[in-house]
Amino acid sequence: IKSHFQLLLDEILHPFYVFQIWSIVVWYLEPYVLYATAIAIVSIFSALISLLSTRKNLVNIRNMAQFSCDVTVLRRKSPSTAPERKLISSADLVPGDVVEITDDMTFPCDIVLCSGSSVVNESMLTGESLPVLKAAIPVHSENTFDSEADKRFVLFCGTKSLEARPVGNKKVTGIVLRTGFHTAKGRLV
Q: Above pLDDT 90, what percent of the chain?
């Protein structure tokens, strides 16, 4: 969110206010001092009200878009140790974290599915009423991962896992691809 100063600068540099400032200068140079002062006061009051309203709306949008929940990640303390399961807040996720996918999980970020599969409700994002089956990305693929072309492997932020289907005794896992406003949901906001 922009600072108060930046929002005020954006507001003042709007063509309407540039015209008002120019008019006020001209009126002060002419004998219309009282009228110019009245217009200046009204313009300043209007710009401040607009600034406060814009700032409040931006904060509300940011708060609506934020979603936080607890997720289980697999992290190594060092490259030579086995990964440990840790329960952390989704606000602490970073791209590259390995996340366990569970039934009824609302995804807090964009995730590339690495093992297992998941039936996902994407209606929040796409409006599609039917659940979509997402499969794990192939392990031995000669192609480089492309987030646009390989959407069938991506669990998008804000969508919900209806069922996580493990393969064998492995848990359903994925790698965090994008977080925050860089996710598919974040770009919509």
A: 43
What is the rounded distance in angstroms from the CA atom of residue 72 to the CA atom of residue 37? 62
Query: What is the domain partition of the chain in residue ranges?
Result: 4-65, 70-188
Classify domain 70-188 by CATH architecture.
Distorted Sandwich (2.70)
Angle at 144 between CA 169 and CA 92, to 5 degrees: 60
Give all strands (DSSP E) within 30-109, no chain letters: 70-75, 84-89, 98-100
pLDDT tens column, 91-113 = 888 998 899 999 999 888 899 99
**Cβ contact 7:53 at 8 Å:** no
Q: CB–CB of 1/60 below 8 Å?
A: no
